[in-house]
Specification:
two-stranded antiparallel ribbon; 2 strands; 1 helix; 70 residues; 6% helix
Length: 70
């Protein structure tokens, strides 16, 4: 099915626990990994077709290199 304009929902997955933190719409939670090949993703389902035009990313303010960008 083709997703209409707006937000599409999915199930988060990652190399560490707390994968749902990447899609919870809260600036008070974060996802972090100690794995050098870390990853996060969102499974929208095998029958979903979408043209994704925007992804919001908020870096961890505790990282010195990211803190100067916020």
């Amino acid at each position: 099915s083709l997703a209409t304009n707006g937000q599409i929902n999915g199930i988060a997955f990652a190399d560490q626990t707390l994968a749902n933190n990447v899609i919870d719409n809260s600036f008070n939670t974060l996802y972090t990994s100690t794995n050098p090949t870390c990853y996060v993703g969102i499974n929208f389902g095998s029958n979903t077709v979408a043209d994704i035009t925007q992804i919001r990313y908020v870096p961890n303010p505790a990282w010195p290199i990211a803190a100067v960008k916020l």
